[in-house]
Design goal:
336 residues, mainly alpha, Rossmann fold, Tyrosyl-Transfer RNA Synthetase, three-stranded parallel sheet, two-stranded parallel sheet, 13 helices, 5 strands, globular, binds tryptophanyl-5'AMP
């Protein structure tokens, strides 16, 4: 394939922690599936990231396969795209060290996600949590990714990745592609159902704050019916004054494809209860085919492991090329 025919590279990943939920679907997974044909894609289950906070080993092992299976159920094709587990390709950890030696403490201290997550960890914050954005930069730069589809909460991590890449290129000549972030038009930041001022999170201790992709239809209906609402009565998009209903409008619009103004006018004069009922049905309808495919795929453990074996081999070959180049550039003697 000539350079002009080569597709641009796209990479993204999700941490196997908590339960994959509709925020991950709307913010990331759906864009992945949509962009898959136009890009040369790599989709990673980022298990090295997950251990920046405590994990139960057996749970982590199970969740890695669950997440892989959900990637596939959301439409990722492991033949077209390279799908793998981060820890199967050691080059991620290796490049992270090399990049870490070119990243400043001040830059990492400014990461809001570190500040938020470290607050929840009490006294013993793992240093990996602080170093985490460097590992994420390594994931992206290792494959020369042009585009990184993520939700809004990853904006700062993408910015530091670009800064590290540019700094490295200035010091050593062009080594890295400087990636662009890609955010969905609607739903880049889905908020919690129990507190619409904080983002929906798959690791939230309260499962009522999110709709998991594998929640049963009645559980979904119950969570949306009980979702916090605002003090007003109108179905109107006003994130400042009506954050809860605005969030439900975003969820509806993102999953149904109907525009927010059209939803506002259709629900003029109707109460929150009617609106919530329709949002619940939209969510149930969106996750039903995912759940069905998940159930078909999840029993075939050998098949899933084969996909990961193939993905790791493909990823490893590509990662090696860039890693060897970086090592040469920083002045390491090549191994003979
Ligand atoms: P993670 O695992 O927290 O989330 C996975 C993806 O889901 C998006 N997301 C959301 N989008 C909209 N609304 C929400 N409430 C919401 N919550 C999560 C995230 O923005 C993300 O796109 N550091 C990353 C994982 C990662 C990565 C990478 C991503 C590691 N290496 C390389 C891209 C490229 C993370 O913790 O995402």
């Amino acid at each position: 394939m000539s350079d002009s025919e080569r597709k641009p590279v796209l990479l993204s990943g999700i941490q196997p922690s908590g339960n994959l939920m509709i925020g991950n679907l709307i913010g990331a997974l759906r864009s992945w599936a949509e962009l898959q044909d136009r890009y040369d894609c790599l989709f990673v289950v980022v298990d090295l990231h997950a251990i920046t906070v405590p994990q139960e080993p057996a749970e982590l092992r199970r969740r890695c396969l669950d997440f892989l299976c959900l990637y596939l159920a959301c439409g990722i094709d492991p033949v077209k795209s390279t799908v793998f587990v981060q820890s199967h390709v050691p080059a991620h950890s290796e490049l992270a060290w090399l990049l870490g030696c070119h990243t400043y403490m001040g830059e990492l201290s400014r990461m809001t996600q570190f500040k938020d997550k470290s607050k929840k960890q009490g006294e013993n914050i793992r240093s990996g949590l602080f170093f985490y954005p460097v590992l994420m930069a390594a994931d992206i730069l290792l494959y020369g990714a042009d585009l990184v589809p993520v939700g809004d909460d990853q904006r700062q991590h993408l910015e530091i990745t670009r800064d590290i890449a540019q700094r490295f290129n200035q010091l050593y000549g062009d080594v890295f592609t400087v990636p662009e972030a890609y955010f969905p038009k609607v739903g880049a930041r889905i908020m919690s159902l129990t507190d619409p001022t904080s983002k929906m999170s798959k690791s939230d201790e309260n499962p009522r704050s999110y709709v998991a992709l594998l929640d049963a239809p009645d559980v979904i209906r119950g969570k949306i019916r009980r979702a916090v609402t605002d003090s007003g009565t109108e179905v109107r998009f006003a994130p400042e004054s009506q954050p809860a209903i605005s969030n439900l409008l975003q969820i509806h619009a993102a999953l149904s494809g109907e525009s927010i103004p059209s939803l506002e006018s259709r629900f003029t004069g109707k109460g929150y209860a009617d609106f919530k009922e329709e949002v619940a049905e939209v969510v149930v309808r969106a996750v039903a085919p995912i759940q069905e495919r998940y159930r078909q795929l999840r029993t075939d453990k050998a098949g899933l492991e084969a996909i990961l074996g193939d993905g790791a081999a493909r990823a490893e070959r590509r990662a090696r090329r860039i890693l060897d180049k970086v090592k040469r550039k920083v002045g390491f003697i090549p191994r003979t």
